[in-house]
Amino acid sequence: MIAKQNIQFQKLIAVTGVILFAIKLLAWYLTHSLSVLTDALESIVNVITGFIGLYSLYLSARPRDQNHPYGHGKVEFVSAAIEGTMITITGLIIIYKAISGFNHPNEIHEVDYGIILVSITAVINYFLGFSAVQQGKKNNSAALMATGKHLQSDTYTTLGIVLGLTLIYFTDLLWLDNAMAIVFAGIIIFTGFRIIRSSLAGIMDESDTEQLKKVVELLQEKRKENWIDLHNLRLIKFGRTLHLDCHLTVPWYLNVNEAHQEVDSVEKLVRDKFGESVELFIHTDGCVDFSCKVCTKSDCTVRQHAFVKRIDWTLDNAYQNNKHRLD
Predict the structure, then answer these.
(1) How far apart are CA 219 and CA 116, in angstroms?
(2) Where are any strands of DSSP class E within the chain?
(3) What DSSP letter does each residue of 234-296 carry, written as one string?
(4) Which residues contact 317 (CB under 8 A, 6 or more apart)?
């Protein structure tokens, strides 16, 4: 259901991108403005990446198979990387054309019509981009979030171009067209770098510390007596799916069914908080001699040492691949 929602939304983005590109081409045809052409060229990227994003969401929604045991979700990061690269290249091309245009500025025509048409595209892009980011956050989709941020940055660029056209309309200073194109091409390049950085982090399995911290805080808050220790906690993101694995120390005398019940409790707690898109792999360890000093279990009949102090779980100590101990 979530994957289908993402795909339907991406279809809307792709189709809207084609329509907005046509509107911007009309605005450029009427005005002959380099800054409007800049916006139109950037919209070509919107169209291409819209369909790339659609294809990536289709792939990421496919179930895992023998060749892809963790599913196809990482294609979303590849899609985002391609999108960021294309945005950056477009920005560089725009700057080159704008600098060259200072020596031979274009004569601007029909500025009023250009302002109206470009303003319409800005409003549509902003609301579409905002909705894409919210949908991406809700469904853990890197592709949708990348597309949404791109559309929002396109809005800011377009608004700047509208401002530039307005100044040209009242002042007749044609060099402002090139100047505005350079400024907002810089914004495009910065956005492209941010998208590339984010996508590479996902491809390289960079730890999502904010998400990990929330998981640790949740388990610490709802901690049970049988959950003696939590360590080797890791989180990897594959598209909209979060894969979480950890080691949970429980009393050594629990049988297999009892230990599994503790694992089920942890899984239910995490899924109730973060949704069904979380996939957990929990390895149970039996407690050892030094665990007694940090164990709060009050009815333990085989305790070897008196309880001394409970170790609270934090992002730093839950990440370590060692059972926690006082000495």
Answers:
(1) 54
(2) 229-238, 241-250, 278-286
(3) EEEEETTEEEEEEEEEE-TT--HHHHHHHHHHHHHHHHHHH-TTEEEEEEEEE--GGGGGG--
(4) 231, 311, 324
Judged by DSSP in three states, 231 sits in strand
- Position 12 scores a pLDDT of 81
Q: What is the pLDDT of residues 167-179, one digit of tens each?
A: 888 888 878 877 8
pLDDT, average across residues 202-209: 62
Residues paired with 316 in a beta bridge: none
| Residue 85, amino acid | T
* pLDDT per position as a tens digit, 105-143: 667 778 888 888 989 988 998 888 888 888 877 776 666
Order across the sheet with 229-238: list the strands: 229-238, 241-250, 278-286
In whole angstroms, give the CA distance from residue 243 to residue 82: 24
In contact, 304 and 289? CB cutoff 8 Å: yes
Output the six-digit token pair for 34: 């380099």
Distances (CA, A) of 87 to 90, 195, 204, 205: 5, 9, 21, 23
Q: How far is CA 148 from CA 129, 223, 286, 295, 304, in A?
A: 4, 38, 47, 47, 57
Provide φ and ψ at 39, rounded to 5°: -65, -40
In 3D space, the residue among 248, 245, 249, 259 whose CA is nearest the CA of residue 290 turns out to be 249
Which domains are assigned to the chain? 2-203 (1.20.1510.10), 209-319 (3.30.70.1350)
Got the DSSP string for 130-161? HHHHHHHHHHT-HHHHHHHHHHHHHHHHHHHH
Half-sphere exposure at residue 130, Cβ-oriented, CA atoms within 13 angstroms? 8
Residue from 160, 136, 159 nearest 147 by CA: 136
What confidence category does residue 76 fall into, taking pLDDT thresholds of 50, 70 and 90?
low
What is the C-alpha separation between 185 and 122, in angstroms, rounded? 16
